Amino acid sequence: MAPSAPYGAAKGFGVDVYTLGEAFAVVTSGRIRHEHEARLDVAGAEFTVAVGLARLGHKVAWLGKVGGDELGARILTALRGEGVDVSDARVEDGTATGMLLRETRLGQAARATYYRSAARLAQGNVPVDRVASARILHVSGITAALNARDAMQAAIRAAQSAGAVVSVSVDYRDQLWPDLREAEEILGALASSADLLFVRQSELDLVKPALGGGRQVVVLRGTRGASVRVDGVRHDAPGLSAPVVDPGGSHEAFVAGYLSALLERLYPADRLRRGALLAAFASSSPSDWQGLPTRPELPLLELEG
Predict the structure, then answer these.
(1) What is the pTM of this model?
(2) Is residue 132 over pLDDT 90?
(3) What class, spelled out in words, does domain 12-292 have in CATH?
């Protein structure tokens, strides 16, 4: 289906999608105590969503705070290189950028250890006029877990006041939530602020009170596909088969694909299909985001789907 006019184009918005969150360095290796080599990358939930959308030609802005070090410079350089607007991003001198240590073990899921940065987004860092001029604001539960809640709520209020779509990915990570009850309370409230909610099958009980209310809820079921209910009608799309190298960024890639198709006013099933396409591209790469497709590359996996 050919795209029609971009979502919200008639309102004279600025960027298509504004997103905010933490980005960090990623060091991937085998068992650290024995390995002599490691792979260095940069990543972040909203980082991946921003890159995925930018590669498909959408205008995206990312707000985050990084340390004044080489890792922070690498994050901003990568985003700029992908065409993401980072003019609102903050650099905090004298502070180290956060890091994720990912140990891969044969026959086991990767073990992740977060080394959090002291650089935190504050409410005063949020340019409410820029957020309000976006068509879509996208945030995730990871940002909520990393103590940037005041900034996130300020952005949500600005988007709601302007009538922009608020997109929320629950993205529950148990390593970041030592208290399950706190996670249920905070993620439930965040989900209730969404117009569009992305939730894994395993996260449904966490945000059960937010599953009604007329919002669009996209349920992701991994290789079994995804579904969304729009105007009372359920739409489904299967997952796509592709060689899996690392599934780490597939969730965020799905979100980017769905938002891209929403901006282009595609039908719900086609939104799910594009989300599944980007997820398959992401999981076939060792990086959360480097394997994401440009628009001319989209048909490469569609031929196999």
Answers:
(1) 0.91
(2) yes
(3) alpha beta
Dihedral sign for Cα 86, 91, 95, 96, please: positive
Angle at 63 between CA 61 and CA 67, to 5 degrees: 135
3-state secondary structure of 206: helix
Determine phi and psi for 27, rounding to 5 degrees: -110, 120
Does position 185 have pLDDT exceeding 70, yes or no?
A: yes
Q: Is the pLDDT assigned to residue 254 strictly greater than 90?
A: yes
Q: What would the DSSP string read from start to end of 94-142?
A: T-PPPEEEEE--TTSPPEEEEE--S----GGG--HHHHHTSSEEEEEHH
Helix axes 268-283 and 250-263, enclosed angle (nearest 10): 150
133 Rama class: left (phi>0) / alpha (psi -120 to 50) / beta: alpha
CA distance 103 to 100: 10
What is the radius of gyration, based on Cα positions, of the chain? Answer: 18
Q: Examine the pLDDT at 151 and tell me if it is beyond 70.
A: yes
